[in-house]
From TrEMBL:
Protein name: FAD/NAD(P)-binding domain-containing protein
Organism of derivation: Candidatus Woesebacteria bacterium RIFCSPHIGHO2_01_FULL_41_10
Listed InterPro entries: FAD/NAD-bd_sf (IPR036188)
Domain of life: Bacteria
Amino acid sequence: MVVEEKKFVTIGGGIGSFTWVDALRIYGVPKKDIAIISPLHTPYQQFKKYCDAIGLTSSHRLRSDSGSRPDNYWGFPGYAVSEIWEEILADKPKAVMKTIVQLIMESLYGDFYTPSAGRVYKSIDSEAKRIGWSEMLYLGIATSIKKLPNTKIAVSLKTQSGATKIIHTHAVLIALGHTRKERKKGIISAYDNHSYIKEQLKKKGGKVVIIGRGATAAQLVEDYIDLAYEKGGIEVISVFRSKNVTGIDSRKLKQKNILGWRLQQFNFPRASFGGSLIDKTDLLWSKASTIPRNSWIHKIRKAHQDCIYKVVGRIPDADFVIDATGFEMNTYSHPLLQKFAGRNKLVKLGKYFEVEALTSNESAVFLSGINALGNGYGPLDSFLGQQYVTDKTIDFLSQQNWSGIHKSSPKQLFMEWWKWIKNKSI
């Protein structure tokens, strides 16, 4: 059995792993000291798969802020500035002015600026190449995590060829992402490929029911309304457990709504990511909501008036029922985390997102993203939330002699940022 030594290991290989590895490389950790265990070839592969399934293509806008850039440790320039610069270079003055006006007027008039999915994928590809992501990647699946008597951590993995490897390490970041829900027979997941539904509706018409009122449900409703106008004979139905017609949400706060849809630009206010509201999670936590895009609001209002779309409280008889209520919210529903949680009884996280039972003066295990849910920091499952976790782990590691990581001076960080601007490999 092959045993290797690596100083840092991340399990998952998605965007949470990517932000962590990006920061490690910026702080001077060489590629030879990092292992990324993942079945994914690119950090956004799983994310893109889910986006594609719900019809959110590369040209569609995400529910994310301009400064929430997984590829940019500093957050500046944001996606909006990059987009404006590209439009200037492409000699598109109208597009430049449109984006600038949108940024200036957001929250006052019109839609907020959000990046397109394609822009996010492209920027992550560029940064992954710059830091040497593929050279650190171990294509496979982690099967166990154990603390060794010498205080190191042993991570076992099975490679795509079926071989077993063990990596001994000082630091592990677990960022496995979401686990799919088990659904009742006859109910289709929003994240499955359901192009066959559209093909059948095109040919025969029928009713399609969509359960949920978050951003995923809103995207699916829009897609099926477009199909209904295109082909006719199609009815689109949303199922909400309560219609929320009062405009008062679960926090006793006033919230815009339309036809029972709760409207909110982001899941959390910007100040909750690291500003004055960071400790106000209970107050800020909202039920499922969607983006108040003017074009979307106009579309569902018109469809409702034309009797193509309606909202009900129970699942009616229909040709297809799609569950868009999200993912499994049990933090330890992933098989690896079930073993992990079972062995460590209660997984308690410290202020640096470290698993206290597995953290010592010589090693540390961290959780990121949805896997760290319940630690008291609300916006974990977001681009900026995962960067916040990364920053806290770097704070922890910089205090450990074995890590070799030291907090950089403003001058050093500026030089690293300049390398990023120039897209210079590190």
